[in-house]
Specification:
The chain has helices at about 20-25, 50-55, 60-65, 95-105, 135-145, 180-190, 210-220, and strands at about 80-90, 110-120, 125-135, 150-155, 160-175, 190-195, 200-205, 225-230, 235. The protein has three domains: about 15-50, no CATH class; about 80-160, 2-Layer Sandwich (Alpha-Beta Plaits), CATH 3.30.70; about 165-235, 2-Layer Sandwich (Alpha-Beta Plaits), CATH 3.30.70. It has seven helices and nine strands, in the order αααβαββαββαββαββ. A hairpin with a 3-residue loop joins β6 (about 190-195) and β7. It is elongated. By secondary structure, it is α+β, with helices and mostly antiparallel strands.
């Protein structure tokens, strides 16, 4: 029995194609698809060039760009360095100060001043930290500081209206000839003499960091024997309170 009489084709045999069918297959496809396949009867996709000529957009053209890059984020340490003031409310336990200072050292910060004091609650202390750095690096350091054990609250008050003061004790070299001049400068600077000796005067001066710097520069011409400063203590203006915001 031949393959034609059985209604099929032998494996490896190909059906004959008429001249009209050849012309139809060779012509461009106006609808972007090929006619049904001679063997399976299924539609065959046209080439991309034919589909484009027919006005059909390819998936890459219709979908647009495959990936859009996110906006560039500033890197820590790449911005402008300025003075920052951080307030941290912590539990009054041994080792808290060491963990805070170690974190700042690991972040390569040089602390300008660090003032620690008790609060109205007996088991809670307050830290005022002043340092120099760019905004991104200080923000990351504040977030990591908040994750430390025994740290209850961290707030950056650099851009907020605050009241800040610093206390300094200055031992000035004094003689009989310039003692009156030194006392006049202390009075004009709203300072206070806390000790008088034959060759020195100890003066207590309070104010902002700029005011204390100005007084120290003014009396430096007489000679400074000793100088100690507490560092800045800062409190935000208004009725808001960082200590009341602490949730324990």
């Amino acid at each position: 029995m031949s393959a034609e009489s059985s209604g099929g084709w032998l494996r490896g045999a190909q059906p004959s194609t008429s001249e009209s069918e050849k012309q139809l297959l060779a012509a461009p496809y106006s609808n972007g698809k090929a006619p049904p396949d001679a063997v399976g009867g299924l539609p065959v996709a046209a080439p991309a060039s034919v589909a484009a000529s027919a006005g059909t957009a390819t998936p890459s053209e219709s979908a647009g760009p495959a990936h859009v890059a996110p906006p560039v984020r500033a890197l820590p340490g790449g911005g402008e360095h300025r003075r920052h003031t951080l307030i941290a409310v912590v539990l009054d336990k041994p080792g808290v100060l060491n963990r805070v200072s170690s974190l700042m050292r690991a972040r390569n910060f040089n602390i300008d001043s660090l003032a620690v004091s008790h609060t109205d609650q007996p088991d809670v202390s307050r830290m005022t930290i002043t340092l120099h750095g760019d905004d991104v690096a200080v923000e990351q350091a504040a977030k990591q500081l908040y994750r430390l054990i025994d740290v209850l609250k961290v707030q950056d008050v650099t851009s907020e209206p605050t009241v800040g003061h610093e206390l300094a004790l200055v031992k000035i070299r004094a003689t009989d000839s310039n003692r009156a001049e030194i006392l006049t400068i202390v009075e004009l600077s709203k300072g206070r003499v806390v000790d008088l000796a034959a060759e020195s005067v100890i003066v207590e001066v309070t104010g902002t960091e700029t005011e204390v710097d100005a007084f120290v520069a003014l009396v430096r011409t007489y000679g400074i024997k000793e100088l100690v400063r507490t560092g800045a203590v800062v409190m935000a203006r208004g009725s808001a309170s960082i200590e009341e915001a602490v949730k324990r």
